[in-house]
Design a protein that fits this description.
This protein is of the alpha+beta class. Helices cover 41% and strands 16% of the residues. Helix 3 (104-123) packs antiparallel against helix 6, helix 3 packs antiparallel against helix 10 and helix 6 (185-201) runs antiparallel to helix 9. The structure holds adenosine-5'-triphosphate and magnesium ion. Residues 15-21, 23, 36, 38, 70, 86-89, 93, 134-135, 137, 147-148, 168, 326 line the site of adenosine-5'-triphosphate.
């Protein structure tokens, strides 16, 4: 598609591909600005009802305009293909940044920024529902932006309506999402807790190759205390993570205000040594799919059973292959065990 013009968008290059479709960098020739166009694959394209809800959520209150949120301009169609038009964000995904190495100070700065972006959304009644490193873009200057706001429901709908498919990864899902209960702001707080843990401890809080075991761990098991992984992480950090990852929503941070305030307070008091601590280390030549990605593949039949369907649907090569290309699990897992 590179070089093509679609309506008033000139496609410049393909920037990536995820579970829901392909993302291109493009120029809006009418408004003379760079945009990212996310073409949804036929399977994930929303129906009219989902489309209306998407527009309502993504553009609630005249659009969520916040420095830590990637602005969504709209939803358009070209020759029967639906695409999302959003601001183009320079930078790389947090999934990649975690693999290329993060310092504790940077990790907390990213968590605080994402917390601020989510807080602004929650104040307007918008949930993200799919907070994960692949949906966080970090600029060279360290500004973090949350993308894919409000589109997770498209995925949720598809997951419930397409036979035998599982979309995305279970890794960042809160217990209530696994129980197919409605999400609320605390569901996003849980996911941010998982991202925070992953960035700072250098491994996932719940990491099992087997989808059933992964689900059981999320529902029932306590993750290893971060301070037991890196002594540089204090008891205060343990307490923040524990509160963000409380299984019962009532025990969790109830609002992002509390989590962001605690993170800011912790960040202010980091010593230069703690700030520069390399909490996630660069990964060398790791191309294999992550355990979690493999788990998502295996989860296909299991989710089918969970939702009372036969696991006989078509495989989703777009989901599994993209996850295999962008493994999100950092490298210290084995070392930390
Ligand atoms: N607004 C944007 N500006 C610049 N690059 C973007 C933008 N949105 C997405 N990208 C890039 O495109 C890649 C693919 O994004 P996409 O959202 O399709 O995949 P994903 O987040 O890995 O999976 P999912 O479908 O679950 O969201 C991202 O890794 C990111 O690098
Ligand atoms: Mg995404």
């Amino acid at each position: 598609m590179t070089g093509e013009t679609i309506g008033h968008y000139r496609i410049l290059e393909k920037v990536g591909e995820g579970g829901m479709g392909v993302v291109y960098k493009a120029e809006d020739t009418r408004l003379r600005r760079l945009v990212a166009l996310k073409f949804l694959s036929a399977r994930t394209a929303p129906d009219a009802q989902a489309e209306a809800r998407f527009l309502r959520e993504a553009q609630a209150g005249g659009g969520l305009d916040h420095p830590n949120v990637c602005r969504v301009h709209g939803l358009e169609e070209h020759e029967g293909r639906t695409f999302i038009v959003m601001a183009f964000v320079e930078g790389e995904s947090l999934a990649r940044r975690i693999r290329s190495g993060l310092k504790l100070g940077e990790a907390l700065d990213i968590a605080i920024q994402i917390g601020e972006g989510l807080k602004a959304a929650h104040e307007r009644g918008i949930l993200h529902r799919d907070v994960k490193p692949a949906n966080i873009l970090v600029s060279a200057e360290g500004t973090a932006k949350l993308t894919d706001f409000g589109i997770a429901f498209v995925r949720d709908r598809s997951r419930l309506t397409l036979p035998g498919t599982v979309m995305g990864t279970l890794t960042y899902m809160a217990p209530e999402q696994l129980r197919a209960e409605d999400a609320d702001p605390r569901t996003d707080i849980w996911a941010l807790g998982v991202v925070l843990y992953e960035m700072c401890a250098g491994r996932l809080p719940f990491d099992r190759a087997d989808a059933v075991k992964l689900t059981k761990a999320i529902l029932e098991e306590d993750p290893l205390k971060p301070s037991a992984i890196h002594p540089m992480l204090t008891q205060e950090f343990d307490e923040i993570v524990e509160k963000a990852l409380a299984k019962a929503r009532e025990d969790r941070y109830q609002h992002l205000d509390g989590l962001v305030a605690d993170l800011r307070s912790l960040r202010r008091r980091l010593t230069p040594g703690q700030e520069a601590f390399a909490c996630s280390v660069p990964e060398i030549g790791r191309d294999a799919p992550s355990e979690a990605a493999s788990a998502a593949t295996r989860a296909r039949s299991w989710i089918g059973r969970l939702f009372g369907r036969r696991p006989d649907g078509p495989p989703r090569p777009d989901v599994t292959s993209s996850q295999a290309r962008t493994p999100e699990r950092p490298s210290r897992t084995d070392q930390a065990r």
